[in-house]
Amino acid sequence: MSSSDSTTDNRLVVVTGGAGFIGSHTVDLLIERGRRVVVLDNFSTGRRSNLARWAEPQHSLSGTSPALEVVVTDIGHGIFAALAPLTAKYGPVGQIIHLAAQVSVVHSVANPLVDMQTNYGGTLHVLEYARAMGVEKVVFASSAAVYGDGAALPVAESSPIQPLSPYGIDKYASELALAYYQMVHGVAGAALRFFNVYGPRQDPTSPYSGVISIFSDRARAGKELAIFGDGEQTRDFVYVADVARAIVAAASSSRGTAPINIGTGRTIAIKELAAIVVELCGGRSAIRHLPARAGEILQSQALVERMHQELGVRAETSLADGLARTLS
Ligand code: NAD
Ligand code: UD1
């Protein structure tokens, strides 16, 4: 059992971006396993409602102190000030799960400086806190976007790194920073390269939102779906509860690791996905094709052996089951 096993660890665990889609599922799992969680979030895309269940008075860990504390802050400023009152009250931070980010590949192509400041700069702020305060482990949300196209499928973690977007570059730069802080400052790190995550609470309202949330939202309303390009591009869609288990497993070990793919090892073309979602929603939506997006990868499929071996986690949820849960 590691020193930070989630059943015995009384230290705080910080989740940046914890009010977001993946973050709120991770918070749920951590609190269910008895951890006290601090969320740092600027609510740019996150929502209070994602964490609402933990605001109920019965969710306290000792006496009346809540299992969840939420601090509204930008990850690029004031992380020390944001955490100081809470560490004074509850003691030190054991782990940071760093998920706060600008999440759209398309947005990063149009706004590379914003992406760099939030996604790379944000990671440095987290690592500086970890170094100064002796945080044991930082788990970082990296992405399949670091690979680009051209690697043999399924993509192994040792494949060439060839990002096609500022988003992919900043995720890889963050991975390098994580490795540097581990080597030079002794902060254990784990970069998890998420493939395409989907499930309940993924926000469909922005044109930059994840494709399953957009398709589901529009198909339920009988509206037309747009496919960018010919729809032959493939993605490895992994259900959010499986991702949350992988994140918590990574946080529960005090050891640093090499980057780990988080996916299913299975893949589907976007045009096939569109047809399935339309059919599940009653078959009323038309599908039309728009020009392909810039900076996109074409084929994506994870090799998941390292996830199984390092984290002991398998993505158990089939796409059929995950879509059913998402649509319900
Ligand atoms: P999300 O938009 O739901 O979550 C991001 C959260 O970060 C939100 O709560 C948002 O308010 C917060 N945030 C953004 N900028 C911030 C800032 N400057 N300061 C503080 N908080 C800030 O998106 P998500 O899909 O849950 O993504 C979580 C992480 O996983 C991100 O790092 C993303 O890049 C990564 N990721 C996601 C996917 C996916 O398919 N969803 C795939 C690969 C990697
Ligand atoms: C997604 C994540 C990104 C992550 C990456 C890892 C989001 C918003 N982006 O990027 O954070 O790092 O996976 O693999 O969660 N599409 C359509 N029609 C639409 C919307 C999308 O055809 O209405 C297509 C896109 O062109 C793309 C595919 O669906 O080919 C997936 O798009 P999207 O969900 O935006 O994700 P990625 O760009 O793969």
Q: How large is the share of residues in beta strands?
A: 15-25%
- Count of discrete domains: 1
Shape: globular
H/E element order: EHEEEEHEHHEHEEHEEEHEEHEHH
Number of helices: 10
Number of strands: 15
What is the spatial order of strands in the main beta sheet? 5-2-1-6-7-8-13
Counting helices, strands and paired strands, the structural category is alpha/beta
Rg for CA atoms: 19 Å
According to CATH, the homologous superfamily is NAD(P)-binding Rossmann-like Domain
In CATH, the architecture is 3-Layer(aba) Sandwich
Name of the top-level CATH class? Alpha Beta
Task: Describe the 3D structure.
The protein has 328 residues and is an alpha/beta fold. It has one domain: NAD(P)-binding Rossmann-like Domain (Rossmann fold). It is 37% helix and 19% strand. The protein has 10 helices and 15 strands. Strands 5-2-1-6-7-8-13 form a 7-stranded parallel beta sheet, sandwiched between helices. Strand 1 (12-16), helix 1 (21-32) and strand 2 (37-41) form a beta-alpha-beta unit. It starts with 11 loop residues before the first strand and ends with a helix. Bound molecules: nicotinamide-adenine-dinucleotide and uridine-diphosphate-N-acetylglucosamine (UD1). Residues 103-105, 143-145, 194-196, 208-211, 214, 226-228, 233, 235, 270, 293, 296, 300 line the site of uridine-diphosphate-N-acetylglucosamine.
